[in-house]
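Structure (tokenized):
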């Protein structure tokens, strides 16, 4: 009897855990987008390309490309059409919606005309994007770093929030992943997608078990065959570990995770006194920030594609899990491999609970 009860309680704990892994449930990312796995290949400035996104779609996940990767609206349109020609699966585009992106209007126009499946907004106020997307059925997921932002975008009508925590690669937040996700879940009703620190089956499982609708994975995909950054950048992802990730304010003025290369050490991580003074004077700040961002983009772009000593390689703590360069589909299956058997249990559970509710 006690063996039976023990087995029953183990089963209960397991099923409970799986129900909490909400990605496969009704408001999970799989249902929202009709995809196999609740995973977004995260948008990465300069790094994302159409080949990676197409490979991701073929592997059962979705992917989003940053609009900022394309200098002209026509190039953005071409990229969208290239993906659409290769796959009928849903994909998205990332829009920076604050003043640092002077092209936001033209970019949004292209996204509305081409009817992308979803838009990920980052920085700034997404109201205009949400208002214009709603009537067309284009979903809007908004990057947020705290509860206040999550509540604001929920009230504006966002379809989901992407919780950007202090382990996210690129521009990161301040709160821990669990703390941020749970605070949003307790106070909002829209689905929460977690970003940061997901690179293998363990980190995926642990994050899904927070009850999130899905996850957003960036750094792990830089080390893919399909990614077109330089071999040096990819090799650095293998050679360096999580302890080599530092946060710099030097590049865009906002905290950014980079690999601590000799060049990053040489230029330092903090703004110097002149930059500090300039940042206090409002009108100087605006001009200098624009110049600083443009200069930083150039340095990051050169580092991403050319062999150079002045390397500023953007990557997150997920670098810890990178041991080799693999195909996108191999990276996806190493992250998702628990799903095959356990998903069927979740589906069974869903069917049973729906039957129960109907009776
Ligand atoms: C190289 C790099 C570039 C990024 N560029 C962007 C970007 O252009 N827009 C954006 O919203 N997020 C950007 N991010 C953040 C990712 O979309 C995503 O939130 C993050 O990579 C998830 O954390 P992970 O790297 O630990 O998987 C970038 C991240 C990296 C590593």
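Design, position by position:
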């Amino acid at each position: 009897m006690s063996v039976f009860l023990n087995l029953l309680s183990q089963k209960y704990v397991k099923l409970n855990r799986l129900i909490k892994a909400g990605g496969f449930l009704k408001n999970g990312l799989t249902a929202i987008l009709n995809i196999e796995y609740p995973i977004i290949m995260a948008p990465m400035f300069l790094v994302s390309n159409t080949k990676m996104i197409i490979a991701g779609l073929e592997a059962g996940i979705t992917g989003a490309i940053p609009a900022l990767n394309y200098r002209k609206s026509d190039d953005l349109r071409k990229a969208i059409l290239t993906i659409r020609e290769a796959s009928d699966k849903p994909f998205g585009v990332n829009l920076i919606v604050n003043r640092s992106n002077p092209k936001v209007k033209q970019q949004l126009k292209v996204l509305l005309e081409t009817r992308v499946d979803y838009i990920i907004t980052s920085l700034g106020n997404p109201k205009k994007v949400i208002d214009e997307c709603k009537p067309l059925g284009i979903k809007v997921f908004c990057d947020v770093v705290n509860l206040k932002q999550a509540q604001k975008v929920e009230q504006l009508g966002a379809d989901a929030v992407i919780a950007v925590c202090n382990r996210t690669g690129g521009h990161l937040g301040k709160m821990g992943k669990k703390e941020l996700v749970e605070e949003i879940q307790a106070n909002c009703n829209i689905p929460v997608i977690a970003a940061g620190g997901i690179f293998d089956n363990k980190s995926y499982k642990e994050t899904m078990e927070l009850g999130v609708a899905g996850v957003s994975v960036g750094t792990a995909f830089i080390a893919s065959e399909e990614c077109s950054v330089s071999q040096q950048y990819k090799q650095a992802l293998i050679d360096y570990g999580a302890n080599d990730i530092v946060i710099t304010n030097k590049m865009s003025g906002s905290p950014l995770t980079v690999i601590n290369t000799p060049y990053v050490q040489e230029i330092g991580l903090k703004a110097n006194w002149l930059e500090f003074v300039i940042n206090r004077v409002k009108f100087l700040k605006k001009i200098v920030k624009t110049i600083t961002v443009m200069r930083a983009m150039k340095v990051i772009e050169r580092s991403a594609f050319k062999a150079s000593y002045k390397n500023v390689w953007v990557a997150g703590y997920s670098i810890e899990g990178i041991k080799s360069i693999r195909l996108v589909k191999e990276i996806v299956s190493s992250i998702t491999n628990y799903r095959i058997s356990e998903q069927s249990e979740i589906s069974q559970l869903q069917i049973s609970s729906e039957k129960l509710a109907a009776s």
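Reviewer-requested clarification: The chain has two domains: 20-228, 231-319. Residues 42-45, 47, 66, 68, 94, 122, 143, 164, 168-170, 195-198, 216-220, 314-316, 318 surround flavin mononucleotide (CB under 6 Å).
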